[in-house]
Amino acid sequence: MYRTYMEYLPSNGTKNKKVFEKRDAILIEETAQEFNISTQTVRNYISLLILPKRLQNSIENDQLPTYYGFELGSLPKNKMMEFYKRYYKDVKLSIEDFKERVSFWHDSMGKDISEY
After folding, report:
1. Is 72 in contact with 51 (CB distance < 8 Å)?
2. How confident is the model at residue 16 (pLDDT cuts 50, 70, 90)?
3. HSE on the CB side for 105, CA within 13 Å?
4. How far apart are CA 11 and CA 60, in angstroms?
5. Other C-beta atoms within 10 Å of 59: how many?
6. Cβ of 116: how many Cβ atoms within 10 Å?
7. Is the pLDDT of residue 72 over 70?
8. Domain boundary assignment for the chain
9. How far apart are the C-alpha atoms of 116 and 106, rounded to whole Å?
């Protein structure tokens, strides 16, 4: 299902983003069709693969609901654990409130989360 970036590099070694993004979208569509699910579902599950191993293990062991993982996957890596500790582990926000915090962070262009 996944292919390496190397397959999409031109011979001069620079990445052609347009070619890769198009091919990436095709792979997502093919996967969605193969498993009879939406492309957004495929994107959500791919987002779980970028989570820190600790959070992946928490989801796998049913200690962290998958939906929280989807939200965490939309954050930069350096913010994932910070959001998890602050808003899930310590405060135990509902998924709606958690989504709102993540959206607020995105909307405020990544300001420090201590502001909210």
Report:
1. yes
2. very low
3. 20
4. 40
5. 18
6. 12
7. yes
8. 5-44, 53-115
9. 12
CB 65 within 8 A of CB 93: no
Task: Name, in order, each residue with C-beta under 8 angstroms of 43's C-beta and a sequence gap of 6 or more.
Answer: 28
Structure tokens at 19: 């070619």
Report residue 103's pLDDT band, with 50, 70 and 90 as the boundaries: confident
How far is it, in rounded angstroms, from Cα 93 to Cα 77?
Answer: 20
The number of C-alpha atoms within 13 Å of 36 and in the hemisphere containing its C-beta is 0
Report how far residue 104's alpha carbon sits from residue 49's, in angstroms, rounded to the nearest whole number.
23
Amino acid 5: pLDDT: 39
pLDDT per position as a tens digit, 78-96:
888 888 888 887 777 888 8
